[in-house]
Amino acid sequence: MSRRATAWVHGPAAVLACWGLGHTLWHGITGPRTALAFGALIAAGEAVRRLPARPAGHRPHPPRAPRSAPAPDVAPAAGASSAAEPPIPPVRGPQPPAARTRRAAPPLPGLREGAPLGAAGALGYALLDATGGRLAVHGVPQTVAVVVAAGLVGLVPYLVRGGGPALDPLARRVLTVGFAATCCQPLYHVDALRSWGAAGPVRPLFLAVLLGLTALCDAVLAAALTRARTGWPYGPLLRDELRALPGIGTAICATGVVIALAVAAAGPWALPVFCLPLLLTQIAFRRYAAVRATYRQTIASLARATEIAGCTPPGHAHRVAALSRAVGRELGLGGADLDVLEHAALMHDIGQLSLVDPVPDGATLPLPAAEQRRIALLGGAVARQTGAPAQVAVIVERQADPYREQPVTARIVRTVNAYDDLVAGAAGPAGRLRALERLRLATARDHEPGVVEALARVLARGGPAG
Length: 466
Description:
Layout: H1 2-27, H2 32-47, H3 97-101, H4 116-127, E1 130-131, E2 134-135, H5 139-160, H6 167-190, H7 192-196, H8 203-230, H9 234-266, H10 270-308, H11 316-330, H12 335-346, H13 369-385, H14 390-398, H15 408-422, H16 428-441, H17 449-460
Antiparallel strand pairs: 1-2
Helix pairs in contact: 1-5, 1-6, 1-8, 2-4, 2-5, 4-5, 4-6, 4-9, 4-10, 5-6, 6-8, 8-9, 9-10, 11-12, 11-15, 11-17, 12-14, 12-15, 13-14, 15-16
């Protein structure tokens, strides 16, 4: 299903790229200096493309062996993951064949455009109608050819630095730039903008509206590709992409319009001047991403504290976090809610550090409801003292409440935690089926039926992929 779905994006992009390159090679290049300047900008933007981040909560952990035998010291196989595809902690217990052969999930959609300079340069070239006051009608084929050639050249340093597969971003870039050029270049040939009243002072507004439509097309393509790669629900993916547009998407579109107008008036020398603000924005965003990664690592370290203290089994918090995120995405939660859910799942057992007598094997499911509630309140207090967001602390505090009184994120943590406790030491699919059956029998008070069924669907596909 994944190959067939991505072919609907990669196929047209490949056809468009071959047509643009072939047409340009046959008819020659119009305005070679301008094409070279924009090509250099696009290649440089692709070369410094941000490497996908490795989520701190997605640490690999070997499946826990049955309690009658010591846990084996299993090293991850060489080449099992790459920097672009963070490894997913396995579900406790033996995995089905699909789970053992399944590739790790691609980068989460919370990390959007990794090459804003390249995107802005490509869009600027698609909108360009003049250079230094002279007509520069290069047409749609040459626009696509320059973007493809420069993109391929710029991806070489990115791949050398350890970047992951970049076929999806390149296909999206070719299609979106082709769309923008098709809407602009033919109109420049016949001077239709002036007759429509879209020239002069109104022209920037026309270009901004066109780039807004281009950004919407890119969001639709990005959500479709992620859906094809992961099987996640399309609606939340598209919503996440649209929510990202007012951020870096606005900066890219604005820079594309500005450099198209500036090069038309001052020539290619305007490119470095008007791309400088976007470059500074990219640097600031990388620093913010580094701070965010440090915070995620801190949360992951706190989650390990319960394991080091012997309060919970090794890997329990990370298994619950990965599976909770997958269930949350199955239920349609967006990027921000998934981050909060993951952090709360990592810290859901942190209240056990305050107990005088540790819970045997860290399993809170067999405890009385009052004791579960007390441990949850202790965990919420610890979470607040660590500086975690209030939403995270609330989920930790309310994970032991009756599910009708809980937010959906707390319901997910409670159900997934109970599942991981139930399958401890279980052998084969029978143990997982028994665990799911026990969860279904407890839907009167403890577990929401919808969450349990979402968990069952995730497990049927082979485990976490959220």
